Amino acid sequence: MYQSPDSDLAYLDYNATAPTRPEALKATVEAMSAVGNASSTHRSGRHAAERVDLARRQVAELLNCAHGEIVFTSGATEANNLALRAASGIGGRLVTSPVEHPAVLETAKTITSGSPDSLMLLPVDADGLVDLDALRKALATGEVAVVSLMAANNETGVITDLGPVVEAAHRAGALVHTDATQLVGRLPVDLAETDVDLLSLSAHKFGGPQGVGALFVRRGTPLPYRPLLIGGGQERGWRAGTLNVPGIAGAGAAAEAARRALATEAPRIAQLRDALEDALVERVGDCRINGVRSTRLPGVTSITFNGAPADAVLAAMPDVAASEGSACSSGAPSPSHVLLAMGHSREEADSTVRFSLGYATTAPEIERAAVSAVRAVRHVRAALTAPL
After folding, report:
1. Nearest to 301 by CA among 267, 269, 333
2. Distance from the Cα of residue 140 to its chain's centroid
3. Given this model, what pLDDT does residue 241 score?
């Protein structure tokens, strides 16, 4: 079990990055201690290639797909870019939603910048769920090349039911991509059952090293090669460049560890998340949990503390690692685009804290975090209402 070097810190920011699993650390260090380019044909190169092949199989087993359908990347951002650029090469409209991660939204906007009408953002309801009727209307035009909807939202944890999305898209001849960065390693993913064409993931979200991810490309998907990096043709032409063997080895080991522990980790983490929510709702008052409570990731809670700006709350609880929203856009002056799309006001969005739990979260951490968060919210509210 992972142990934080900062024992006084309740680390509840797994959606930003998870602590490295011991198995992943061991595999990464062992690979770093060896020498060899995975593309070389001598013994050292073959040993490096064997590490990559093992990791590819471990990631494939976590997703229940063929190992040849896995393309290693530097992370989910690159995988999202690669997927959308390849899919858009077919020609046609790109359909996504306003609650996607910037790695999808900004890529989609860039790809369609020359023809803004070719990008369609589907509306979402107050719980963050995509309007499927709007999706069907878009697909009925027969002009859609790819539908890209995230499997689970990074801010609210709300899960997308991909089954009807895939069914409708494929019936209309469109491809489906999903950014599954927050879902993989947290809940079961079965690509033999969920027939998406493309899926992006990042290893550090489930306990692997940072800087490595993967793109699943279903065998037989009619895609033109549109690599972002041109060079030696590694990864079957999808991504040129010397493979990051230590990172890939760590990603594989993390995938294997997550797969083995999934059945026990998910319900345990959900129970801890519920305990945190119950404590905060009961003790703080005037707060609201965002998203559909029945269809969220087990370890994510997005809570709006009315009358208490999130930045002030976080500053008032330095012994808790949490977030205002996506770590990729923290520090930006604009409020969460996810919460705004769900109908929240700017003030409500600015008063929302995301707590995200994971495989190493403990009950004592939750208890400390609850006490600290309650104290912080009360302190901020009192300071803002105190007479000058």
Report:
1. 269
2. 29
3. 87
Name the class of domain 10-19+262-385: alpha beta
Q: Work out the pLDDT band at 326, boundaries 50, 70, 90.
A: low
Residue 96 pLDDT > 90: yes
Beta bridge partners of 355: 301
Whole-number Å distance between alpha carbons of 169 and 268 = 35
If you search the block for the tokens 């490309």, which residue do you land on?
A: 217
Query: CA-CA distance, 231 to 33, in Å (whole number)?
Result: 27
**Torsion-angle region of 91 (φ positive above 0: left; ψ -120 to 50: alpha; else: beta):** left
Looking at 12-16, 85-89, 201-205, 339-343, which range is the least confident one? 85-89
pLDDT of 250 above 90? yes
How many other CB atoms are there within 10 angstroms of residue 315's CB atom? Answer: 12
Q: CATH 3.40.640.10 residue ranges in the chain?
A: 22-257
Concatenate the DSSP letters of all residues of 134-156 into one string. HHHHHHTTT-EEEEE--SB-TTT
In CATH, what class is 22-257? alpha beta
The answer to whether residue 287 is catalytic is no
Residue 332 reports pLDDT greater than 80: no
Name the CA radius of gyration of the chain, rounded: 21
SS3 123: coil
Q: Give every strand in the sheet of 300-305, ordered side by side.
A: 287-290, 300-305, 352-356
Looking at the chain, the domain(s) classified CATH 3.90.1150.10 span 10-19+262-385
Catalytic residue, from 29, 126, 132, 328: name it: 328
Please compute the mean of the pLDDT values over residues 206-232 and round it to a whole number.
89
* CB burial readout 179-190, b (16+ within 10 A) else e: bbbbbbbbbebe
269 close to 359: Cβ distance less than 8 angstroms? yes
Q: Answer yes or no: pTM beyond 0.85.
A: yes
pLDDT single digits (tens) 181-214? 999 999 999 999 999 999 999 999 999 999 999 9
